[in-house]
Amino acid sequence: MNSQQLIDAEKKYLAQTYARPPFVLTRGEGVYVFDAEGKKYLDCAAGIAVNALGYNDPELARAIQNAANGLLHTSNLFYTEPQVALAHALVDRSFADKVFFANTGTEAMEGAMKFARKYHRERGDMNRTGFVAFRGSFHGRTMGSLAATDSEKYQTPFRPLMPGVTFANFNDLDAARAAITHETAAVILEPVQGEGGVYPATDAFLRGLRELCNERGALLIFDEIQCGMGRTGKLWAHEHAGVTPDLMTLAKPLAGGLPIGALLMTQAVASAIHVGEHGTTFGGGPMITSVALSVFNRISDPKFLAHVTETGNYLMERLSEINSPHIKEVRGRGLMVGVELDLDAGKVTEKGYARGLLLIKARERVVRLVPPLILQKSHVDELIDKLGKILAEL
User: Model-level pTM?
Assistant: First the structure.
């Protein structure tokens, strides 16, 4: 099929839940992707912050090939070495004592909410079933995670949602203090909000939440599905504030583009979950975890993280040089940056396609830059040149 035939077939056979641009991507190389007509695009979306190692990476390809020569699937009824090895690595390089593997970020978040409720039930506190989330949050699209996602557009078609979620203002410790009660099982937040507009939590806010949760007996859940795994220049985004959660959800870049989710937790939380109380058929399969271990070892290397920090700082410097009245604010950490505009960011992403630039937006007025973490300064220069010209056109 040519591109138009494939686009027509997509509309015929797939549920229309996405609005896609009118071209077909066929391959990638480094930080670039190519469409069926051979046009080259600088990718500043990375599959929504997934493709941390870019495209056609030789080491990742070898890891996939080696994993494919072994067991593809066994279910969680049996032990496999790759699953244990990945869990060991995650525990060694985080706050966590135990790991539960899922397939996606939203599954990891559903698990976190279930585990939080079970933690309190195990201690005889049957009233602690509620959650505190924050304005601008995005935690997933399944019914529990959707209930903790602050978006009328996402929530309205599917109400009634899971009850018991209270929303407080982000980066507002007084609002959080008022929201956290003796019925709060856990407080849930992204250390850097993604879909909500790329808003970093302040260090003081994260530290204050940790103190509040300790004081009031609630658990603290960090959603690092998008901002974790090196995206901010540290392995975990919460490291900037020097605090640790009780549970943390991971997904997007963990297996370099293959589907995996992970829920990390303290021993206190893990001890509340018993055999048969949670499960997954595919989560933590031997092929995926084998690949994920290779990806994790590379991203967690201090030299790799230092590169993300250096390139991210350069990106912020170059963005500050764009002289456009449309830019209202630039914010973010590492290679997770939001450019807030005074116009619909969708207009910028559309013009980006014509100039060979893949961008995504966050809410209506923020261009979200989450490129592969292997981005170089020369690629930043190309991005700034193209983005500057787009804004000038507008």
Answer: 0.97
Give the integer Cα–Cα distance in Å for 327 and 260: 36
Tokens of 127: 């009233």
Q: What is the number of domains present in the chain?
A: 1
pLDDT one-digit tens code per residue, 257-281: 999 999 999 999 999 999 999 999 9
Q: For residue 358, what pLDDT is reported?
A: 98
Peptide bond before residue 286 is cis, with ω within 30 degrees of 0: no
229 part of a folded domain = yes
Q: Which residues of 41-54 are buried (b: 16+ CB within 10 A; e: fewer)?
A: bbbbbbbebbbbbb
CATH number for the domain spanning 235: value is 3.40.640.10
Residue 363 lies in a domain: no
Q: Quickly list DSSP for 58-83.
A: HHHHHHHHHHHTS-S---TTS--HHH
Cα 8 to the center of its chain, rounded Å: 31
Say which residue the tokens 């787009």 belong to: 390
